[in-house]
DNA sequence: AAACAGGAACCAC
DNA sequence: GTGGTTCCTGTT
């Protein structure tokens, strides 16, 4: 793969294992929207761009060449997903699941944005989460003009510290509003240090994260996987719970047991397995009739 | 229009 | 530590 400049941005030439829909519509991120033509527009770390796929080339319209290392990291382009898929395909269920999410990649997102977004994800659905995250960005982030339209960066802890519980409720955060205020304060005032947590191993980082208000085991696993490079994390949401119970376990095993089983079974690739399974579960809905 | 979907907190035990 | 209930809001 190489990266070139073009008139409106940059091009990633000859990218493998890369499908926009699988990457941006698989529940790992909330700020990218399908423009109804298969391209996706959104904001990452203050950069508003549009992704357009053409064959094996990916256009990042609005992308700057001096940000090329940022995009390589964000899109996890240095990882060999073919190899991961080969390893996971030894398991028959995963072999099937991978077919449904061929081009998934796990993004490397900002820890703070990911943490707040997944606090909002508790007992919530993707369109609602997206709306709340968008509202927070519009109210507390910085304006970016792209293609003649307004976009907003996700606020850093300092900017989000101006948010009150009332304002966050208006943004659609519901009962999670006080958790966001409290956790933002913990981070801003240095009692929680996301960079330090990121430097710990998966188990210790998990222990630290669940000390924070609004973060339970599942949300902690999402933060670890989607923003801290912990690919051995295995977040168990309702969808993953359903596939796991259907294909591997009894219908009544606890979330913790499913988590332990997944981490044990898929090891260093547990996070990737989780993504394929999540996508698979959502495709299976209605067809095979997953229980619960 | 009542039922349902979705994880964490919180309180019992 | 496990189990039951509550939180909020849109959709069916």
TrEMBL record:
Pfam families: HhH-GPD, OGG_N. InterPro entries: DNA_glycosylase (IPR011257), HhH-GPD_domain (IPR003265), HhH_base_excis_C (IPR023170), OGG_N (IPR012904), Oxidative_DNA_repair_enzyme (IPR052054). Gene3D superfamilies: 3.30.310.260, Helix-hairpin-Helix base-excision DNA repair enzymes (C-terminal), Hypothetical protein, domain 2. It catalyses: 2'-deoxyribonucleotide-(2'-deoxyribose 5'-phosphate)-2'-deoxyribonucleotide-DNA = a 3'-end 2'-deoxyribonucleotide-(2,3-dehydro-2,3-deoxyribose 5'-phosphate)-DNA + a 5'-end 5'-phospho-2'-deoxyribonucleoside-DNA + H(+). Its EC number is 4.2.99.18. Keywords: DNA damage, DNA repair, Glycosidase, Hydrolase, Lyase, Multifunctional enzyme. Residues 120-282 form the HhH-GPD domain. GO terms for molecular function: class I DNA-(apurinic or apyrimidinic site) endonuclease activity; damaged DNA binding; oxidized purine nucleobase lesion DNA N-glycosylase activity. The keyword Lipoprotein does not apply. PANTHER family: 8-OXOGUANINE DNA GLYCOSYLASE, N-GLYCOSYLASE_DNA LYASE. Belongs to the type-1 OGG1 family. This is DNA-(apurinic or apyrimidinic site) lyase. The lineage of its organism: Bacteria, Bacillati, Bacillota, Clostridia, Eubacteriales.
């Amino acid at each position: 793969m190489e990266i070139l400049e073009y008139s409106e941005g940059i091009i990633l030439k000859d990218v493998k294992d890369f499908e926009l829909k699988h990457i941006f519509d698989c529940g790992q991120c909330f700020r990218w929207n399908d423009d109804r033509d298969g391209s996706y527009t959104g904001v990452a770390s203050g950069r508003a761009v549009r992704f357009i796929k053409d064959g094996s080339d990916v256009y990042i319209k609005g992308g700057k060449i001096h940000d090329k290392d940022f995009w390589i990291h964000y899109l996890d382009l240095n990882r060999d997903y073919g190899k991961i898929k080969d390893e996971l395909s030894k398991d028959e269920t995963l072999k099937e699941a991978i077919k449904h999410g061929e081009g998934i990649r796990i993004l490397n997102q900002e820890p703070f944005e990911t943490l707040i977004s997944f606090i909002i994800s508790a007992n919530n659905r993707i369109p609602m989460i997206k709306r709340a995250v968008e509202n927070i960005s519009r109210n507390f982030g910085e304006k970016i003009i792209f293609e003649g339209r307004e976009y907003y960066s996700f606020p850093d802890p300092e900017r989000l510290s101006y948010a009150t519980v009332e304002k966050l409720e208006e943004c659609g955060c519901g009962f999670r509003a006080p958790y966001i205020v409290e956790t933002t304060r913990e981070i801003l005032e240095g009692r929680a240090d996301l960079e330090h947590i990121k430097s710990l191993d998966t188990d210790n980082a998990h222990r630290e994260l669940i000390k924070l208000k609004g973060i339970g085991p599942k949300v902690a696993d999402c933060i670890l996987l989607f923003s801290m490079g912990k690919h051995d994390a295995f977040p168990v949401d309702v969808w993953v719970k359903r596939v796991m119970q259907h294909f591997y376990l009894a219908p009544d095993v606890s979330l913790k047991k499913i988590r332990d089983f997944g981490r044990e079974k898929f090891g260093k690739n547990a996070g990737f397995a989780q993504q394929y399974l999540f996508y698979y579960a959502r495709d299976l809905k209605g067809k095979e009739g997953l229980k619960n």
